[in-house]
C-alpha cells in the first residue's frame, strides 16, 4: 500500500524485478499518475487558507512587538518576543503538546463568540514575578503550588498584556479582551470539542537569561465571523473611514483658502565657483532660456505650467499656455 515502509528484502526484490524486466518502471509511473489518491485526515481538517494564516501571523507579529515594549518597560529587563510559528491543529493535539502543569489564561473577546487561550511557560511566568517583586529575574517551576499572591500578580500581568491584543487586531476588527479564567492544569480546561480546529501561534520569549514559549490558541469558531477580513485583498484595499456629514466639504473649503507659492522661472544658468567668486557689480550672467521660449511656472517646487511673460495693469504678469505632464507630485 502507498505509505507503507518497505523492508530491505522487499527493496532488493523490487530492484531485481526491474532489472530483469519482470516489472516496467514506466507502467508503474503511469499507474501511479492515474490513481492520484491523496490521503485526507479528517481529524486535521485544514479550515484556514495559507493567506489567512499569513494574516494571523502578521497580527501576532505586531502583538509580539507590543508585548516586547510593554514587558521591557514593566520588568526593566531585557525582553525579546518573536513569532516562531503559526499552525492549525485539532484542539486535542494542542492540549497534548503543552506541559501538564502550566499557566493558562482564558480570555473572552466580545463581540466575537468563544474564548482565546494564552498559555505561558511557567519558567517565563516565574521570571516575570521575580522581576515584579524586585528580584533578578530568576525562574523556578512550582506551578502546582501557586499562592494566592502569586496567582494575583500573574493574572494582573497577563491581563495588562492582553490589552495590547486589542490594538494588534485594530486593523481587522474591534475586540474587548476580558480575562475570564485562570488555570494551571490543561485537563480541567475544555474550551471546544477535541476535534475542533484551532490556530496556535507560538512565540519565542526571552526575559533576561530565561527562555520559553507563549502560545496563543484561537478556535476556528471564534474567527469564523471575520474570516473574510483575513484575506490580503481586505488588508491591501483602501478602507474608507466613515466621515461625519459635511466633513469632506469643510476640508475642501479649507484647502481652497490655502496659500501656495507660484514661481515664474525666467531661466537658469550654471557657473563655476571660481567665476562666482569673481562676480562684481555690472557683470552679466547669460541664462540658458531663449527669449521666445515659454517660461516654466512652478507651484511650490513642482513645475506645473508653461506661460508667456507680459504686462497687465502696468504690472508684470504671465499668461498660462499649457499644463505640464509628469511633474513631481503630479496627480493627473
TrEMBL record:
It is found in: Bacterial flagellum basal body; Cell membrane. CDD domains: FliM. Its main location: other. Keywords: Bacterial flagellum, Cell membrane, Cell projection, Chemotaxis, Cilium, Flagellar rotation, Flagellum, Membrane. GO terms for biological process: bacterial-type flagellum-dependent swarming motility; positive chemotaxis. GO terms for molecular function: cytoskeletal motor activity. InterPro entries: CheC-like_sf, Flag_FliM, FliN-like_C, SpoA-like_sf. GO terms for cellular component: bacterial-type flagellum basal body; plasma membrane. Residues 254-323 form the Flagellar motor switch protein FliN-like C-terminal domain. The keyword Membrane applies. It comes from the Bacteria. The keyword Membrane applies. It is a peripheral membrane protein. Belongs to the FliM family. This is Flagellar motor switch protein FliM. It comes from Falsibacillus pallidus. The lineage of its organism: Bacteria, Bacillati, Bacillota, Bacilli, Bacillales.
Amino acid at each position: 500500500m502507498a505509505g507503507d515502509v518497505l523492508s530491505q528484502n522487499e527493496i532488493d526484490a523490487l530492484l531485481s524485478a526491474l532489472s530483469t524486466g519482470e516489472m516496467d518502471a514506466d507502467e508503474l509511473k503511469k499507474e501511479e499518475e492515474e490513481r492520484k489518491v491523496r490521503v485526507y485526515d479528517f481529524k486535521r481538517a485544514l479550515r484556514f487558507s495559507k493567506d489567512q494564516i499569513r494574516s494571523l501571523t502578521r497580527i501576532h507579529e505586531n502583538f509580539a512587538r507590543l508585548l516586547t515594549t510593554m514587558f521591557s518597560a514593566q520588568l526593566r529587563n531585557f525582553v525579546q518576543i518573536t513569532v516562531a510559528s503559526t499552525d492549525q491543529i485539532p484542539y486535542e493535539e494542542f492540549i497534548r503538546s503543552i506541559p501538564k502543569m502550566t499557566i493558562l489564561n482564558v480570555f473572552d473577546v466580545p463581540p466575537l463568540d468563544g474564548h482565546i487561550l494564552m498559555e505561558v511557560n511557567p519558567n517565563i511566568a516565574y521570571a516575570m514575578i521575580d522581576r515584579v517583586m524586585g528580584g533578578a529575574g530568576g525562574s523556578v517551576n512550582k506551578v502546582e503550588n501557586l499562592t494566592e499572591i502569586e496567582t494575583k500578580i500573574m493574572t494582573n500581568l497577563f491581563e495588562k498584556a492582553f490589552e495590547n491584543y486589542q490594538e494588534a487586531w485594530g486593523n481587522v476588527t474591534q475586540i474587548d479582551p476580558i480575562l475570564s479564567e485562570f488555570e494551571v492544569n490543561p485537563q480541567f480546561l475544555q474550551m471546544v470539542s477535541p476535534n475542533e480546529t484551532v490556530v496556535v501561534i507560538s512565540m519565542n520569549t526571552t526575559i533576561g537569561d530565561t527562555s520559553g514559549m507563549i502560545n496563543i490558541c484561537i478556535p476556528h469558531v471564534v474567527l469564523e465571523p471575520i474570516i473574510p477580513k483575513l484575506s490580503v485583498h481586505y488588508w491591501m484595499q483602501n478602507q474608507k473611514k466613515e466621515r461625519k456629514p459635511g466633513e469632506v466639504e469643510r476640508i475642501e473649503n479649507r484647502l481652497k483658502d490655502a496659500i501656495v507659492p507660484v514661481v515664474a522661472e525666467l531661466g537658469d544658468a550654471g557657473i563655476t565657483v571660481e567665476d562666482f567668486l569673481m562676480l562684481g557689480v555690472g557683470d552679466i550672467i547669460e541664462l540658458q532660456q531663449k527669449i521666445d521660449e515659454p517660461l516654466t511656472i512652478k507651484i511650490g517646487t513642482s513645475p506645473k505650467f508653461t506661460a508667456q511673460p507680459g504686462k497687465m495693469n502696468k504690472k508684470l504678469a504671465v499668461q498660462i499656455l499649457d499644463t505640464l505632464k509628469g511633474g513631481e507630485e503630479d496627480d493627473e
